[in-house]
Structures are given as C-alpha cells and as structure tokens.
Amino acid sequence: MSYQHILVPVDDSPISYAAIDHALELAKLCQAEVTILSVVAVDPYVGVDFYKVAPSITEHFMEAEANAKAQLHDITMSFDRENIEVNSKIFHGNPAEGIIHVADEVGADLIIMGSHGRTGVKKLVLGSVAQSVLSQSPIPVMVIKHQSS
Questions:
Q1: Which residues form the UspA domain (predicted)?
Q2: Of 94, 130, 124, 89, whose CA–CA distance to 107 is shortest?
C-alpha cells in the first residue's frame, strides 16, 4: 500500500516526535505529502465573552498559539531537509474532532499519531484522543504507542 498524504497531529510530548519519525520514514518510502497538525484545545465550557475579559486566559491561548507555531516550524524544517512536501496547520478546538476535520480537509489517506498510553482511571477521566480518532476516522490510523522503560 502506498500513501499519498499523511496527517501527523502533534503536541509537545516525546511520543509525538516518535510519530514524526515514523511519518518521515514512511513519507520518504511512499513519496507522500505530509501535513503536520497542532491542535490548540479550547475549553467548551467557558463562554467566549470570558476570554475577552480575562487577560490571563487570553494570554494563555496566545502563548499556546505561539508555541504551536514554533513547534510546527521546527518540525517542518526536518521534512524540508529530506525534500518531502510538508504543510502545517493549527486547529482550535477539540483535538479528536480537529484531527478528523483536518484529515478530511487536506485529503489525507493516513493519520500517524502518538498515544500516551494512559490506562484505567487516567484514560477514563482524561479520555483518549487516539482512541477517539481510531473510532471516528474513515481512513487508516497508525498509532505509535508509548514505550514504558
């Protein structure tokens, strides 16, 4: 199977960088285009007006956006060095929904993402973005699992 367009959602965790490494190697083999995605999560329980009047919240989101842009720039440079066509996107909202939405938007035919490997109560409370994407995605999803040492 050969892939044409790979979507790689990232955060600032080591497992995201493991997913990037896998995507880089697979993109070289398939000569695929890659889109790197960073999702800036927005709390759905807080009203928009609150963000406008709460400078600390606004500052937090501005900082998150700046960090996402810097991270995406650094990652895209590694693909550029390998002459792999790469794009980057930032999505604001729910991570799993954003990943599915952007995969459809860019015409991805594979998603490669890391899984933090949460289990039990942590998974129940925090949810699992990877699990949500796996259950909702109409395209293949490669999950790079957290390696415990």
A1: 3-145
A2: 89
What Cα–Cα distance (Å) separates residue 89 from each residue in 85, 105, 122? 14, 11, 28
Per-range mean pLDDT, top range of 100-109, 124-133, 139-148:
100-109
Instruction: Say what the pTM is.
Output: 0.85
Spatial contact of 32 and 142, defined as CB atoms under 8 Å apart = no
Q: Are 99 and 37 in contact (CB under 8 A)?
A: yes
Q: What is the pLDDT of residues 60-96, one digit of tens each?
A: 778 888 999 999 999 999 999 999 999 999 999 899 9
Beta strands in the chain (DSSP E): 5-10, 33-40, 86-92, 110-115, 141-145
CA atoms lying within 13 Å on the CB side of residue 10: 30
